[in-house]
Specification:
Elements: E1 3-6, H1 12-23, E2 27-32, H2 36-48, E3 53-57, H3 66-81, E4 86-91, H4 106-127, E5 131-140, H5 153-173, E6 179-185, H6 196-199, H7 201-209, H8 219-230, E7 241-244
Parallel strand pairs: 1-2, 1-4, 2-3, 4-5, 5-6, 6-7
Helix pairs in contact: 1-8, 4-5
């Protein structure tokens, strides 16, 4: 049994990641930003699978809180699992802001930066002393770092930075046997961006028409891929960007 921390695990893709990791026989410590009820619901689902789970509140854009969060993680690991470390980290927490370059505000840019770049960098830094040697880290990017759609310049640029950061993490953490990879989802049917991909039939149909497998992605397509990338089956995959988009915009 191994323990995974999944940030933003209380909803959307994060929830699917948590459940698929549990299906692999691992326990999960997930984070939520404000909706404890959603986190509790995910914990209940994980426990139905016979695995242990816990949740901690985290604002992934508030780097000043990360040291205290790491101490909370240390406490929960001891209380729930009798351990002083964990095995897997999934930096999933994030938000989407869509605006043309000409209309993007500094506030929007800074919000995206604090969560997707600064947050991933310094949260990982603070948690590294608790990551077991031989562990695995997955950072979450986006297909938009490869293909371009108007309105996502700031968001996609942040994710591009995450992809570069992933390679540096893999290089620096290699001596500890810790693998670090990026997963880059394509368009997925979730509540992201107000649920546009899921609920707008024209957007959904367009994306399906531009995807080699002929449909839009579902959360479980991403959750299962993350669980697989963390597992020993992927032990020789390191420092890579793995796009999970069904072949979108090939």
């Amino acid at each position: 049994m191994k323990i995974a921390i999944v940030t933003g695990g209380s909803r959307g893709l994060g929830t699917s990641m948590c459940l698929h990791i549990a299906d692999k026989g691992h326990d999960v410590l997930l984070t939520y930003r404000s909706r404890k009820d959603e986190a509790d619901a995910v914990i209940a689902e994980i426990e139905k699978k016979g695995r242990k789970a816990a949740a901690l509140k985290l604002d992934a854009g508030d780097s000043a809180s990360f040291a205290a969060f790491a101490e909370s993680v240390r406490g929960v690991l001891g209380e729930v699992w009798g351990r002083d470390n964990f095995d897997f980290l999934v930096n999933n927490a994030g938000i989407g802001i869509s605006a043309p370059i000409t209309e993007t505000t500094e506030e929007q840019f800074d919000t995206l930066y604090n969560i997707h770049v600064k947050g991933v960098f310094f949260l990982t830094q603070k948690l590294l002393p608790l990551v077991a040697d031989g562990g695995s880290i997955v950072n979450v990017s986006t297909g938009l770092a490869r293909f371009t759609l108007p309105g996502y310049a700031a968001y996609a640029s942040m994710k591009g930075a995450v992809e570069v950061l992933t390679r540096y993490m893999a290089k620096e953490l290699g001596p500890r046997g810790i693998r670090v990879n990026t997963i880059a989802p394509g368009a997925i049917e979730t509540d992201f961006e107000g649920g546009a991909v899921r609920d707008n039939e024209h957007i959904n149909a367009f994306i399906a028409s531009q995807t080699a497998l002929g449909r839009v992605g579902l959360p479980d397509d991403i959750g299962s891929a993350v669980a697989a990338l963390l597992s020993d089956d992927a032990r020789w995959i390191n420092g890579q960007r793995v796009e999970v988009s069904g072949g979108m915009f090939l």
